Amino acid sequence: xxxxxxxxxxxxxxxxxxxxxxxxxALDLQGISLVADYFVICHGNSDTQVLAIAAEIRKRAEESxxxxxxxxxxxxxxxxxxxxxxxAHVFHKDEREYYHLERLWSDAKAVxxx
Length: 114
Prior knowledge:
alpha+beta, Beta Polymerase, domain 2, 38% helix
């Protein structure tokens, strides 16, 4: 990982991991979608945990100089954090099982998170 997108990906993953996000997955969308280079998908088991994960990702991305837009903070069921090259999806467990984005983007390669 060398570029800005990859550095931001590491920042996002670290923030989610610090707030104990569950089933963290990063998908490489390069060449598949113009929306973003990577999707990060994870979930929390409560509204409070979803909001904590989203807040930590946002804080770290902004501290790293990236512009951040969010949607879904009012319900804490599916929070979308758009950072340009990276879009993070922080779900409540029930919504993640319902929407199953990994299946919808099955053409994307999973990025190994170390």
